[in-house]
Q: What sequence folds into this?
């Protein structure tokens, strides 16, 4: 599903250059649930943003679902993002003047799905994350966990190949975090490929594979026994 | 670009972001409103000017004697100049090429009586061409004629309101005898005049009659003449100068004495006032353009602010698959919609105010019937919309091309 080869990325700040990713190689199969771990500043978000085409690598290869991703202009990147990828952010990134269902329907609008179908699908995914009764509430009327559920529903609505989540539990308490991870595991069980960036070991243990980043290289990459979040959730 | 979905998206952002909508709408509406009102008032001023100078023939000179302000040829300064009949004759003889008509004017006032009614009126003793010069309209009877002049006839022509004052509304004055200053005159005509009530309370008589009754004097107060319009504006100015020079020489006045003879040249006055009106119009156009520029700057700033405020939202949209073109379209379509509607509101309000003003400010502020061509205001609105769009396009394109990750970091 995802193949990267010798991926490099530096940030230039004035005359200094910060080499963040130093030649990463990685391959992720369909249906995997991968945790990307590492201390703060180790380049986890940078990697995820490149995978999400929100940012560009300096050099290296990136193949997504058999499609080589290179020389992207913004228009092309937007289309790929819309078709292949769903994002879940630490800070939710919901549009504050749109209701839950309108937020969920937005990627479908950019897929040119007609209005009725948008409503239907958005409601279906809201139901899936357990927020059917909150469909017409604004983000400001929702709790952190509920907001993240809306964000997950929104990421799912476009039916992407891969879900990318950056510290999706970072702003939540541990109980809510486990509920969200339970949802993520459920979605993964249905076969969706998911990459989760986290620095919390317990969250990483709920994935099936853990990749450790340190100083811009992968220092460890191992498959693990998945801890089911449902065991922490009553 | 104009799909129903897009419009729904826009109406939602407009509805949910009222302050933003209000700010940009208000700026445009105010700009167009001020532009419309100012421009309309400028036109109103011009209308008044035009109306004002329609009342009199514009090819007239009126010449009044004054006092000398410097000694000349043995005469002391402060000497009063007097015109006499021979001045008229000389001008007729020596300026035949320029001259059209000429008349002396002797002004005085006297009490007129008819039966029980009496009132004091201004009386002008004149020659027949005076009527044409003032564009006097005869309602009944006739004006003073050559026959009256030759025969020193005690005939008078009275204004419409003199007739109303002394004869009432039902009785006709024509043919009746009126006591003016102790002398009985026969009323031969009644006239009206568009220039107002004062004009219609005048009485005219042959100047020859007046001079005969005034101990056979040949003094006159004022000379009025019209020139041949074929000589044009330049010819009129030349005539003006040489006539002054001629009269100064004849009356022994220093050539550079400005106070001894006053010559009022309507052509010159009209020309100057038209120039003044045109300058006013120019000022109004400048102010209008200034208002538009202020509006454009205002809407530009607001658009920069709007896009800045929306940076994060636009980043989210892009992460969800919005292309740069659709982001630009969203921002611009919203601003076009708001500015067009607001421009229309400003236009309607401005036109409304102008039509409410109507002729209300004519007396005090010299503005009659202010108004603007619809095409000019629509043009102004389009200019604002266009610059609003241009002003929105630059930041919108910048925002659209920012990497979404940068936009998402924006707080
Ligand atoms: N846009 C940027 N410009 C400059 N430096 C950046 C930028 N984004 C991240 N960095 C730096 O790159 C390094 C990796 O950042 P990041 O990938 O966010 O780390 P992590 O998500 O693992 O905490 C950090 O040192 C960070 O300061
Ligand atoms: Mg990070």
A:
């Amino acid at each position: 599903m995802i193949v990267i080869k010798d991926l490099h990325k530096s940030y230039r700040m004035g005359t200094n250059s910060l080499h963040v990713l130093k030649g990463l190689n990685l391959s992720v199969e369909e249906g995997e649930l991968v945790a990307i771990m590492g201390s703060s500043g180790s380049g986890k978000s940078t990697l995820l943003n490149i995978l999400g085409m929100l940012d560009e690598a300096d050099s290296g290869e990136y193949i997504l679902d058999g499609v080589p991703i290179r020389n992207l202009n913004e228009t092309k990147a937007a289309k790929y993002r819309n078709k292949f990828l769903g994002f879940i952010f630490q800070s939710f990134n919901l549009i504050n003047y749109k209701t839950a269902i309108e937020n969920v329907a937005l990627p479908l609008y950019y897929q040119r799905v007609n209005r009725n179908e948008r409503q239907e699908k958005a409601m279906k995914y809201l139901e899936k994350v357990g927020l059917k009764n909150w469909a017409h509430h604004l983000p400001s009327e929702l709790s952190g966990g509920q907001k993240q559920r809306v964000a997950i529903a929104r990421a799912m609505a476009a039916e992407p190949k891969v879900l990318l989540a950056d510290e999706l539990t970072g702003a939540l308490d541990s109980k809510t975090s486990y509920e969200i991870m339970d949802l993520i595991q459920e979605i993964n069980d249905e076969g969706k490929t998911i990459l989760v960036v986290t620095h919390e070991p317990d969250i990483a243990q709920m994935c099936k594979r853990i990749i450790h980043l340190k100083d811009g290289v992968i220092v460890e990459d191992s498959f693990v026994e998945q801890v089911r979040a449902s065991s922490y959730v009553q | 670009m104009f799909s129903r979905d897009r419009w729904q998206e826009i109406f939602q952002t407009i509805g949910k972001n009222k302050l933003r909508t209000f700010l940009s709408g208000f700026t445009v509406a105010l700009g167009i409103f001020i532009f419309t009102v100012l421009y309309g008032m400028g036109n109103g001023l011009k209308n008044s000017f035009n109306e004002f100078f329609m009342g009199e023939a514009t090819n007239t000179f009126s010449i009044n004697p004054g006092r000398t302000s410097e000694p000349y040829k043995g005469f002391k300064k402060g000497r009063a100049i007097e015109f006499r009949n021979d001045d008229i004759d000389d001008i007729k003889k020596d300026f035949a090429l320029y001259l059209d008509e000429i008349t002396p004017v002797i002004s005085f006032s006297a009490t007129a009586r008819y039966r029980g009614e009496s009132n004091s009126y201004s009386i002008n003793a004149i020659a027949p061409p005076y009527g044409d010069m003032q564009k006097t309209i005869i309602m009944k009877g006739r004006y003073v004629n050559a026959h009256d002049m030759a025969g020193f006839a005690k005939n008078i022509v009275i204004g419409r309101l003199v007739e109303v004052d002394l004869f009432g509304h039902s009785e006709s004055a024509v043919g009746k005898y009126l006591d003016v200053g102790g002398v009985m005159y026969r009323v031969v005509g009644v006239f009206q005049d568009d220039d107002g009530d004062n004009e219609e309370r005048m009485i005219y008589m042959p100047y020859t009659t007046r001079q005969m009754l005034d101990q056979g004097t040949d003094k006159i107060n004022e000379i009025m003449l019209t020139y041949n319009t074929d000589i044009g504006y330049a010819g009129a100015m030349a005539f003006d100068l040489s006539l002054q020079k001629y009269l100064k020489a004849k009356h022994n006045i220093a050539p550079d004495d400005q106070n001894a003879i006053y010559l009022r040249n309507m052509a010159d006055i009209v020309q100057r006032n038209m120039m003044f009106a045109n300058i006013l119009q120019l000022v109004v156009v400048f102010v209008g353009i200034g208002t538009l520029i202020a509006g454009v700057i205002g809407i530009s700033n607001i658009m920069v602010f709007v896009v800045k405020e929306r940076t994060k939202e636009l980043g989210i949209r892009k992460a969800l698959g919005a292309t740069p073109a659709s982001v630009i379209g969203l921002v611009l379509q919203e601003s076009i919609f708001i500015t067009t509607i607001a421009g229309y509101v400003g236009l309607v309000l401005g036109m409304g105010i102008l039509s409410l003003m109507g002729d209300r400010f004519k007396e005090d502020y010299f503005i009659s019937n202010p108004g603007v061509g619809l095409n000019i205001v629509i043009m102004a609105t389009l200019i604002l919309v266009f610059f609003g769009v241009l002003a929105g396009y630059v930041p919108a394109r910048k925002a659209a091309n920012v990497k979404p990750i940068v936009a998402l970091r924006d707080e």
